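Figure 3 (text version): structure tokens given as input.
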């Protein structure tokens, strides 16, 4: 016993041991509440246990299907760990206001890196000019300006649609793409500013842009070394837009276009980059949606007959040449069933996911959503919520009769154009151009579909 007391006495003579014995209880007293507090925080249920990779492999195979599978397993709020990122999904309509309106989330920070990767726009330039670019596009494509833009598109669409011929068999997407690409580019950029008049030059542009668009989703995340062909097309397009900007700066135009407004808004070194991004925004969504509208309409003879009757009441019976057909913005307002078809196609074939970055932790449904997470919302699945859209998987244009479209009010729960401060700035122009193109096609052509309506591909964008 005396020896034990002696050993303890010797321990107290060692400063390091004395320090440790004094500090350890103090450390426990300070850190335990912090640790316990963190343990008490409830984070959303999570999938993806593999370090860094998470569930990227399963997610990448069929993103939309995997999102819905995760919702069923984990509940209305859940997190997917994908390639070093935490993607936290909200899936119930009651929580969407938080996604769009919370001051704890940020749209610009969510999209800055994808913008840099796909258009080579620096972080500094993006944050300095993004809001001004958004507001410029919103102003240039606002409803009061649509009458003039509609008249230009009417002429351009007529020129392109006459090239379809009278009888034939072709790929509908290719026909729509070529007709709309040329028309929209000439309208928003100026007559032949881009290579739309020379067949060989245009085909080269189309090939590069289609490749750029097809792999755009991968380009937002993957290094260009893994996307060599995509990177080559991106650089080709940037060189083209650099030459366009250089030429247009020296021109004096009485009728300036959206391109010229953008050039004046952004810093000069990045003007070609913003021009590329603007063209992508103008073409990437409008063309596929137009294709789907036509597919849905021509696959349902009852709907087609109703639209034909509506068209005849507004612009007269068939017989006019397309170059003599003048459909105004006012005429389009008198074609509600056509607009219902467009919006219903947008509902069914709109964006897969939209995102915000969490800048400050907040609580949702009892879960702590930590700062740094990417907050995700899937319009694709939100539009298939049977509580909001009965018979959600069916193409039912008549459901839009309940929307007050005369006041530009969509159905509750419709999210394809986003929400909040940075709602899609070109949505009214986009709806107008699709309505106009579809009206002209229906007026002029009898189309027979060679197969059933194709299934949608499971992608996020």
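Below: residues designed for each position.
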């Amino acid at each position: 016993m005396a020896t034990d007391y002696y050993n303890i006495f010797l321990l107290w003579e060692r400063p390091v041991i004395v320090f440790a014995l004094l500090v350890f209880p103090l450390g426990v007293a300070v850190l335990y509440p912090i640790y316990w507090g963190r343990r008490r925080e409830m984070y959303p249920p999570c999938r993806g246990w593999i370090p860094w990779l998470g569930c990227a492999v399963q997610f990448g195979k069929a993103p939309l299907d995997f999102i819905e599978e995760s919702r069923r397993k984990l509940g209305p709020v859940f997190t997917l760990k994908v390639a070093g990122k935490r993607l936290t999904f909200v899936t119930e309509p009651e929580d969407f206001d938080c996604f769009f309106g919370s001051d704890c989330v940020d749209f610009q920070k969510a999209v800055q890196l994808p913008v840099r990767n796909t258009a080579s726009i620096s972080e500094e330039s993006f944050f300095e000019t993004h809001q001004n670019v958004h507001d410029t596009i919103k102003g240039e494509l606002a409803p009061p300006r649509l009458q003039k833009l509609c008249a230009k598109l009417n002429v351009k669409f007529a020129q392109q649609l006459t090239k379809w011929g009278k009888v034939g068999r072709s790929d509908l997407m290719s026909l729509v793409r070529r007709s709309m690409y040329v028309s929209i580019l000439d309208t928003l950029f100026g007559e032949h500013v881009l290579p739309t008049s020379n067949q060989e030059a245009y085909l080269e542009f189309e090939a590069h842009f289609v490749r750029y668009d097809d792999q755009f989703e991968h380009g937002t995340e993957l290094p260009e070394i893994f996307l060599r062909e995509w990177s080559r097309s991106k650089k080709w397009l940037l060189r083209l837009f650099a030459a366009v900007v250089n030429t247009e700066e020296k021109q004096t135009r009485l009728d300036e276009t959206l391109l010229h407004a953008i050039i004046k808004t952004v810093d000069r070194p990045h003007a070609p980059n913003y021009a590329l991004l603007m063209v992508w925004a103008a073409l990437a969504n409008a063309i596929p949606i137009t294709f789907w509208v036509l597919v849905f309409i021509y696959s349902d003879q009852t709907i087609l007959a109703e639209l034909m009757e509506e068209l005849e009441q507004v612009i007269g019976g068939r017989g006019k040449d397309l170059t003599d057909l003048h459909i105004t913005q006012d005429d389009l307002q008198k074609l509600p069933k056509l607009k219902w078809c467009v919006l219903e196609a947008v509902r069914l074939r709109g964006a897969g996911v939209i995102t915000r970055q969490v800048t400050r932790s907040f609580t949702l449904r009892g879960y702590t959503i930590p700062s740094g997470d990417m907050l995700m919302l899937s319009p694709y699945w939100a539009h298939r919520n049977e509580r909001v859209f009965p018979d959600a998987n069916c193409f039912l244009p008549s459901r839009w009769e309940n929307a007050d479209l005369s006041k530009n009010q969509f159905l509750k729960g419709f999210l394809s154009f986003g929400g909040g401060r940075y709602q899609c700035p070109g949505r009214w122009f986009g709806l107008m151009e699709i309505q106009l193109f579809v009206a002209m096609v229906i007026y002029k052509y009898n189309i027979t579909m060679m197969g059933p309506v194709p299934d949608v591909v499971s992608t996020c964008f």
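The CA atoms of residues 115 and 121 lie 6 Å apart.
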